[in-house]
Amino acid sequence: xxxxxxxxxxxxxxxxxxxxxxxxxxxxxxxxxxxxxxxxxxxxxxxxxxxxxxxxxxxxxxxxxxxxxxxxxxxxxxxxxxxxxxxxxxxxxxxxxxxxxxxxxxxxxxxxxxxxxxxxxxxxxxxxxxxxxxxxxxxxxxxxxxxxxxxxxxxxxxxxxxxxxx
Length: 166
What we know:
By secondary structure, this protein is α/β, with parallel strands linked by helices. 57% of the residues lie in helices and 13% in strands. It has 7 helices and 4 strands. The protein has helices at residues 3-19, 21-28, 30-41, 60-70, 84-92, 106-111, 127-157, and strands spanning 49-55, 75-80, 98-102, 119-122. Strands 2-1-3-4 form a 4-stranded mixed β-sheet, sandwiched between helices. The N and C termini lie far apart (65 Å).
């Protein structure tokens, strides 16, 4: 690469930018404006996300677990859904962005000390929003799991809940 050629082309382009005022504005004003808009004008927070619950277990523990989501400032409960077809329909119609599915035997598994799983279905139309929601769901799941573990340890050992904090 010839340095003299690079400098000659750079000088030519510099003259072109200085000669055309619109290009000058675009070259030096637009990037800082875009930076400011992206930095201060857009929020990455997600709030009031509509969600529904499919509860195949319909037990006290599954309702308590769902209450963790209902009382979160990030989510807005849109009701219990009768089954997976309705959940899929509401997701595709964008009436909800999240569906939480509790399987049968959820409470029995937890009360017997076994791991229990729940399914979360996301509307993945906007990947950045979906990743943020995934983080919120993981945080709420961790808090709910800790509360359930604390109750389990308290019940098994016969000690007050405050002493059984996991």
